C-alpha cells in the first residue's frame, strides 16, 4: 500500500522535473523561475476577445516614444541580465523614450503582454520571444494598429513583412571567431578538451560547430568532447578524468565561463600551467566581468561573447539614424584575447559584476 | 577469505552487503580495464603545495557533497518514510547565503568565513524546518512537501545575490574547497570524515538513532511510548538542513563561484539513490548511515569510471540508471528473501528471516 503510494508520488515528482528541465535558454544557464500561467488561457482566444477593445492608433501625445519590450526575465542568465539592463539604459526617459517591459519565460504570457502593449497603444514593440511559433496573430494586430515591431536576440517564425527588422546573434559566427583565434595561435599541434554546454541549446550548437569542423578536417585532435551542461563542477570532473588518464592536451575549449573556471581548477590541482605563457590554452565564453579579469591576469587566453547589446542598434533604427539593409541584422560578436584586453573592455563588455 | 564470503552470503553484513559488493565489483572491473586506474600520485599543484591526485582521490573527493547530503537524507528517510527532493535547491540557497555574507564584507578572513558559514547553516535550517513542518505537522507526503522548495529554491537563490555567477576569491575559500597548504588530502574529504564522526558521536551519546527508528517504524507506537514523533521528524529535516549548508559551502568553495542554476544540480536524485544503494528502507525505519556513505561513493565511482571510459556525459546517466536499477532490485526485500531462501535450501539450514524486509 505504502509502496504503491510512494511509487506514484515518485512518478509525479519525476514528471514535474522533466517539465522543469525542458525549458532551455540561449545565453547560458536555464532557470525555473516563472509564475504559473493563468489556467487555460489560450493565447488565440485572448487575442480574439481583446481585438474588439483595441483602440485605434494613438499618436504620441508628447515627444516621447513609447516602447514596449517583451523579454525573458533577467534571472534567466547573465546574458539576459545584461540584455535587460542595456534595454533600460538605452530606452530611458533621458533619451526620449517611455519604456514598458514585460518579462516571462512562457510564450503564452509573452503573447498576452504583447497584446496588452498593443491595447495600451505603444509606438514600438520589441520582442525576444520564448518560442518561435504562435506570434502571427499578435504581430498582425500590431501591424493593423500601426505599431512597428522589432525582434531582438531571437527570431520568430513569421512572415518578414510583419516586423521591421530583427537584431540577432549569429551563434555559429561566435564559434567561428573563437576557432579562428585559436588557429591564429599557430600551435604545433592542437589537442583539445572540448567541454560543451547543455546539448541542443543555441549557444552549444553555435559554439560547437566550428570546432567540430576542425576535428573533422584533422587540423585539431579531439582529446575528449563532453557536455557538462553548463555545470562548473562537472567540467572539473571531466578535465580531472583526462588528467588522470595521463593523456596529453594543450587546449581547453569550454563553452561558457563557469565551465572554463571548473576546468582551470582541475589544472591548478594537478599543477599544470595555463593561460598566457602556460602549457594549456584556456578558452571560455560569455565574458563575465570576473572571467575577463582572469583573462587580464593571464590565467586564461580567450573569452568570446554572444553580444547582449542590441538596444542601441534598434534605437538608431527607430530614430532614423541608420537604416536596415536587410530584415536580419547580425549583431557583431566579440572575442577578447588576454594579450590585448584592456580594463575599459572589461567595464564596457563584461557581464555581471 | 572463504569464511568472509560465507558471511556475506549469509547476510552477515546485513544491509551493507549490497553496497560493499557493488563497490568491490566496480574496483575489480576497473582493475581489469586499466590496472593503473587507482594509481595515486603525489605532485605539486600550481600553488606549490604537495597534493595527492589520481582517480581514487577524484572519486572520494568528488563524492563529498553527496556523502554529506546522504547522511542527512538517511535520517529524514528513516524518520519520515520519504525523501527530501529539495536538497539541491536548498544547497544553492545556502551557498548563495554563504557568498552573500562573504561579498558584503570588505575583506575575507577566518571570522567572516565562519560567520558566512553559520549564516548559511541558519538559512538552510530555516528552509529545512519549513519542509519539516509541512511533513511533521501537516502530514504532507515528504516528496510533495519538498517539491515546493525544489521548484522555487533556485529562484530564491538567484534573488539572494542577483547576478548569474558571483565569484569570491580568497585563500581561505580555496583551502575549504581544495587543499589546506601542507595537507595533501583534499579538504572536502576531511570534512566528510568530520561530519561522519559527529553523526557517530551524536548517535553514541543521544537516543536519536533509536527514536528516529521507532518513529519511522511506527509513529503512533512511538508516540504512545512517549516519543514526540512530530519533533523527531522536524529535527531530521533540520539536521539535513545543516548537511545541506555544509554541502553548499563545499560546492561554492571548490571553484569560488556560485551558479545558482547548476550548483549541485540533480544531486537530490543521487542522494536518494545513495540512501537506497546503502540498503536503507526508503519507507522508513531501520537505517545505517555508513551504508548511505558507501552508496555515495558507489555512485561517484560509477560516474568517474564512465568518464574514464570516455562515455559521453549525456549517456552517463543512462548507464548509471542501468547499474542502479540492478543494484536496487538485487537489494530489494523480495530478491533478498528469495536469495536467502535459495541459499538455505542449498545448505539445508533452517530459514532465516530476511533483514530489512517489512
CATH superfamily of the largest domain in chain A: Response regulator
Oligomerization status of the protein chains: heterodimer
Helix content of chain A: 40-55%
Please identify the top-level CATH class of the domain at 55-301 in chain B: Mainly Alpha
| Count of helical regions of chain A | 12
| Topology of chain B as a string of helices (H) and strands (E) | HHEEHHHHHHHHHHHHHH
By DSSP (H or I, 4+ residues per run), the number of helices of chain B equals 16
Describe it:
The complex is a heterodimer of chains A (353) and B (358). Chain A has twelve helices and twelve strands. Chain A has 353 residues and is of the alpha/beta class. Chain A folds into two domains: 121 residues, Rossmann fold (3-Layer(aba) Sandwich); 153 residues, 3-Layer(aba) Sandwich (Rossmann fold). In chain A, the strands form two sheets. Chain A has a six-stranded parallel sheet, sandwiched between helices. In chain A, strand 6, helix 7 and strand 7 form a beta-alpha-beta unit. In chain A, helix 2 packs parallel to helix 4, helix 6 packs parallel to helix 7 and helix 10 packs antiparallel against helix 12. Chain B is globular, with a radius of gyration of 21 Å. Chain B has a two-stranded antiparallel sheet with strand order 1-2. The longest helix of chain B has 27 residues. Chain B has 16 helices and two strands. The chains are: A alpha/beta (353), B mainly alpha (358). At the A-B interface, helix 1, helix 3, strand 7, helix 8 and helix 9 of A face helix 3, helix 7, helix 12 and helix 14 of B.
